[in-house]
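Severity: low
Component: inverse-folding endpoint
Summary: output formatting inconsistent between runs
Steps to reproduce: submit the following structure tokens with default settings.
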């Protein structure tokens, strides 16, 4: 995809992977709008030349704000990157269900809603794409993040089905599957992490190269293991 002068929308673009994707899309010549919940972070992005839309994608009002914010604009690239973890969700504690609901709304409901509501605009462009950022955990889940893994697996299935439905359209459907990346979400997790800059670089290269599935970093190895033995991939990742 030629990104020059394309209008792109990056959800969760105020920090982490989203911020790096936005910066690298901008460097490739795209005009970029970012969304987020933090007024301070959005102000910082505006200072770097980005359009901004404030919206909490765990709510219907937040989705409405994003859709209304790009209404009438020639949107050609939608990057559904915004996501939250559910690290404090306890599978046997009903008082933590609100955490699960926030994760479900942000990671799964919002991307589906944005795809559905923005597809007419994307179809009106000569060349367009949707990038749904899932996770290596969409391939094989880990025991420490049941709800998070479920949202990413759900988004992966939705993305694959949407790609088939739109196979004859001008809108390319892309899935990006990052590994563990050094962001605020993973700050409590030990171990080796990919930088957000390097993760975003692989995603943007994949967009430009016309890929439909972008396996980032160590996810390439996970995909290989899964292709040989899905059971082995699950056995490895469930303890992660």
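Observed output (run 2 of 3):
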């Amino acid at each position: 995809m030629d990104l020059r002068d394309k209008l792109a929308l990056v959800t969760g673009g105020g920090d982490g992977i989203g911020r790096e994707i936005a910066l690298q899309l901008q460097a490739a010549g795209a005009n970029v709008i970012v969304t987020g919940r933090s007024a301070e972070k959005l102000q910082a992005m505006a200072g770097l030349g980005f359009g901004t839309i404030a919206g909490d994608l765990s709510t219907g009002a937040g989705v409405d704000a994003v859709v209304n914010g790009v209404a009438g604009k020639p949107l050609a690239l939608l990057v559904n990157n915004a996501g939250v973890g559910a690290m404090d969700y306890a599978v046997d504690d009903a008082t933590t269900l609100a955490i699960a609901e926030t994760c479900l709304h942000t990671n799964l409901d919002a991307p589906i809603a944005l795809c559905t509501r923005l597809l007419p605009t994307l179809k009106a462009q000569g060349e367009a794409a949707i990038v749904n950022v899932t996770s290596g955990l969409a391939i094989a889940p880990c025991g420490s993040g049941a709800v998070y893994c479920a949202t990413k697996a759900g988004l992966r299935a939705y993305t694959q089905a949407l790609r088939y439905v739109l196979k004859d359209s001008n809108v390319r459907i892309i899935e990006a599957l990052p590994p563990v990346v050094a962001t605020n979400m993973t700050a409590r997790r030990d171990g080796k992490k990919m930088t957000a800059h390097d993760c975003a670089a692989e995603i943007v290269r994949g967009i430009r190269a016309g890929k439909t599935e972008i396996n980032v970093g160590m996810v390439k190895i996970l995909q290989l293991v899964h292709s040989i033995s899905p059971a082995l991939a699950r056995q490895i990742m469930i303890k992660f």
